[in-house]
Amino acid sequence: MSTPRYRCAACGNITRFDVMTDRRTRAFHHYSVGGELSLEEEEVVSEEVVEVQCRWCGHGRNVETLAEADAAD
């Protein structure tokens, strides 16, 4: 699964975005004898992009997802 690229049609930004996602993960929690947690074998079960905002103009009304061919250019 590839990470999408974005473009703001209002200002032309293609580099800076705030992306809010809802993510469900499954992970093995390994606690040391001292009680410190380390996460191992973390797997993303599902992920959904909730909102994308342009960092330059501050809103997400004109943010577009670029097709892979456009993102390579």
What does this structure look like?
The protein has 73 residues and is mostly beta strands. The chain is built from one helix and four strands; from the N terminus they run ββββα. It has one helix at 68-72; strands spanning 5-8, 17-31, 37-54, 63-66. It has a two-stranded antiparallel ribbon. A two-stranded antiparallel ribbon has the order 2-3. A hairpin with a 5-residue loop joins β2 and β3 (37-54).
Give the secondary structure arrangement, pairings included.
Elements: E1 5-8, E2 17-31, E3 37-54, E4 63-66, H1 68-72
Antiparallel strand pairs: 1-4, 2-3
Shape field? elongated
Number of helices: 1
Helix fraction, binned, reads under 10%
- Rounded to the nearest angstrom, the radius of gyration is 17 Å
The tally of domains stands at 1
Mean pLDDT, to the nearest integer, reads 90
Name the structural class. mainly beta
Terminus-to-terminus distance: 20 Å
Task: Provide a quick synopsis of the model.
This protein is mainly beta and 73 residues long. Helix content is 7%, strand content 56%.
Question: Keyphrases for this structure?
Answer:
73 residues, two-stranded antiparallel sheet, 1 helix, 4 strands, 7% helix, 56% strand, elongated
